[in-house]
Design goal:
alpha+beta, 5-stranded antiparallel sheet, 7 helices, 27% strand
């Protein structure tokens, strides 16, 4: 499992989005010199009020509810989450189906509240729009 977690510890960006591997801890994000200062300021000023700095992004998102301040912060940033989960229904041969898709935070939280099963969900990465980051006032 440790090797799998290392696969999702990365930072990338393109012209419109910032991609963070969901296994990155907040400490690792704050120490990375390539990550924009504004994102680091948002993390240290808003997100670390409800999360431990050694906690990974995935752990934090899977534990939050729709009434938390962290949720409102992520909602304002309009993040999208790349998630893999086991479908509740199996295929014709009886095998469980793994689903990979990109969803909004609202869809993830709503789905988690309905099923109550965070064990079957694995977050791979989060995507932050640079326009949302630019319009976020710290």
């Amino acid at each position: 499992m440790a090797m799998l977690n290392e696969d999702f510890k990365y930072y990338m960006q393109d012209m419109s989005k910032i991609y963070l591997g969901a296994s990155l801890s907040y400490d690792e994000i704050l120490e990375n010199e390539e990550i924009p200062f504004k994102l680091k300021a948002i993390i240290s000023h808003y997100l670390l009020k409800e999360a431990d700095s050694s906690m990974s992004i995935a752990e934090h998102i899977l534990k939050m509810d729709s009434k938390s301040f962290s949720y409102m912060t992520f909602h304002q940033l309009k993040i999208k989450v790349k998630v893999t989960y086991i479908n509740l229904y199996s295929n014709k041969k009886g095998k469980k189906i793994h689903v990979n898709k990109v969803i909004t935070l609202e869809e993830l939280i709503a789905d988690k509240e309905i099923h109550g099963e965070s064990d079957n969900v694995f977050l791979e990465e989060i995507m932050i729009s640079k326009i949302s980051l630019m319009s976020f006032s710290v």
